[in-house]
Amino acid sequence: MVARSCFFVMCCACLALVPSPANAQFTATRLSENLSYAYAVRGGIVGGFIINTIVDPVIWPVPGGPPLSLWSPAVGGGRILAMTETHQFGEGGPGAAMWAGTASSMVSLHPVGAETSSILAASSTRQGGWMNFPGQEYQAALWSGTASSVVSLQPPGAINSRVLAMTESHQGGFVRYPGQPGQGNPTHAVMWSGSASSLIDLHPAGYATSGILGMFEDQQVGSATAGGTTRAGMWFGTPESFRSLHPFSDGLSVANATCGSAQVGWMNSVGLGSAGVRAVIWFGTAESVMDLSQFLPPGYGQSIATCVEERNGVFTVGGYVRYGTTDQAFVWTGVPAPGTTMVLIPLAPLNRRRRDP
Length: 357
Hints:
Helices cover 0% and strands 50% of the residues. By secondary structure, the chain is mainly β. The chain has one domain: TolB, C-terminal domain (Neuraminidase). Mean pLDDT is 88; it is low at 1-22 and 339-357.
């Protein structure tokens, strides 16, 4: 299972009107009764993988319909972890791979000499993730559609790094730096714009660790940890713009993805009614959080939302839900009820100052 967990600029914002989540209704649909995970959604199509006798990379063209396997006996198992309108990305065989909707279309993007690699995010022209070479830790990597195009985004002095989210112009994720003796090695939320030297540190002041997990236009989401407590948060391109998406005094949370108008992830707080890890959706503010597990059929355990898309006012949220001891891929679809709630949307363009390597 794939785990999915900074420059100076003034960022202006305004209050925009979006549908209110207060009376939103979602329909939850199980995608597989086998051990399975949904990690990407694009154009209403959900991507992920099913684990049976093999790890089968699949897409669900219609939620609730049969999965389309992209497995090839010549390659072995794989995982779909990111998608664009035309392609699927993730892992196939030894590492990073790309598909175009069929098993036979798979192209390996695994760098020559690398031990392992994976693609975790994609835009229309580039792909981001990580790679590692024998004897080395993983490092953030960026591809342009071929194995030979890969470049490392890891800045000098870093221990390791990953790309976990992308837009057309930027890549987001984290960099782990050497820490002080006895204090561990902290991770910092970061953004790049195509090269290691373009790195921007988004780590908010007062937090021990942070990371970017999702991006949409000039909005970034992820989490930051202080005092051993991890809370979901949102940025608009600067460390100072970080704001918590956790409205309660107790519990933990992480935002895994955003489509701009909504953010999804998980939360563990009695503020939701009882403790336990639950898939949640936000509509731009901490107070707008809504528990998606309320729409699940009886018998579920923990649930986690991993991806989100909005098309024509309809939200599609992918993730997985635990039944007994088995995680099962799920998708939620819904339209929030008419109304308004306030969401901060940046107006000013980002005027970035690059972090010295």
